[in-house]
Every structure is written in structure tokens, then in C-alpha cells.
């Protein structure tokens, strides 16, 4: 894939797994929540995992999946408080800051576009301090649709200005890259190294990068081939 930065005005970036290490989220939902659920309900961690994971799976690809209030209610746990307990695991992926600085220096519009709930966003922006690098931060919860829904991108365009043919999207979710492709977003980048603790995922459908440094021209020019 050839990228000529003179042809791109706007960069949309997903948060979890793309800019931030998904190890935090994976650990939180797979291990931490079931552990606290087991304590609360007097059951084994194995049984709690089975029950919690089934509940999570039932809400995949919906906004409930990332709705902390929904899960606090369903699980009888204060999910935002539990997130604070493991907040030391929230981390920015390597080379993200360099990439954001490159985009800033070259006058690109930069938008964080996430399915994350407002409470998760607050916590992560507080921990990582990356918020000021963005022209806007959009939560799917404010638009009423998750990125998995092809109608999401049209709704997003009511909120921020971008020309799909001159826009890049960085994502670790192939499903979301696919809905963006259907909408006509031209430059689709799959982030394969979504977690510091998991093997890299290589997409068969989209160009996969490990790190955003791969998108920064090294020769002072505006082009890069990945
Ligand atoms: Mg993601």
C-alpha cells in the first residue's frame, strides 16, 4: 500500500488496541471482573468466568458491550471503580506519540473515534494525557451506534468534517474497517499488534502495521510504502 500524505487531510483513530494497549481491557474483562464477581456472589472464579464471559458475548457488536453503566447494573459491580483498581495497566502503544506529533506538524485533522463509553474515555485520557493531540474525541455512545454498524460513519460525518477519499482510519477491528470501507473511507490501516501480551494479528483484507512509525516517511518526503 502506498501512502502519499499530501492526499490525506484527516486521520481517524480508534482508541483501545490501536493507540492504547488492549492488554488493559483484555485483563480487565477476562480476569479482573470475574474475580470480583466471584467474591461478590460467593462462587469460584472459574464459574464466575463462565457466567460473565457468556454475558459479555451476548452483547458483542452492540453499544452495551462498552456501556459501563449497563455492566455495573447487570453484574451488580461498580465497573468504573474496578477499572481504577487496574489502571496502572493503561498504556500508550510505542510510536503513537511520534505519529500524533507527525500528524500535528503536517496540519492533519486528527480525531479519536471510539466505541468506548464516556467514563472509560475519561479514565484513559486522565492516565495517558493524549487527549490534547486530537481535534475532537467522539464516543459512539454519543452517536447512538457502534462502529460495527455501517450507518455509524454517516452519523460521524454529521459531527466532524472529513472527505472519505482523503481520510485514513487506523483500527485494530477488521469489522470496523469493513464498515468504513463500505462508507468509502479510502485509507484503511489495520493495527495488528493490538496488545503487548498477545500475538500480532495479520489481516487478510487490510494492510497490517505493527507500529504507527511505519506510516511516518523517513526521508523527509511525504510518501511511504507499507
Ligand atoms: Mg479497538
Task: Give a short synopsis of this structure.
By secondary structure, the chain is an alpha/beta fold.
CATH topology of the largest domain: Rossmann fold
Span of the ends, CA to CA: 5 Å
Please mark out the parts with pLDDT under 50 across 5 or more consecutive residues, or reply none. none
CATH class of the largest domain reads Alpha Beta
Please state the second-level CATH architecture of the largest domain: 3-Layer(aba) Sandwich
Question: What average pLDDT do the residues reach?
Answer: 97
Structural summary, described in words:
Helices cover 40% and strands 15% of the residues. The protein has 226 residues and is of the alpha/beta class. The protein has 2 domains: 2-21 and 91-225, Rossmann fold (3-Layer(aba) Sandwich), CATH 3.40.50.1000; 24-88. Strands 4-3-2-5-6-7 form a 6-stranded parallel beta sheet, with helices on both faces. The chain has a two-stranded antiparallel sheet with strand order 1-8. Helix 9 links the parallel strand 5 (167-171) and strand 6. It binds magnesium ion. Magnesium ion (MG) binds at residues 14, 16-18, 172-173.
Tags for this entry?
226 residues; alpha/beta; Rossmann fold; 2 domains; 6-stranded parallel β-sheet; two-stranded antiparallel ribbon; 9 helices; 15% strand; globular; binds magnesium ion
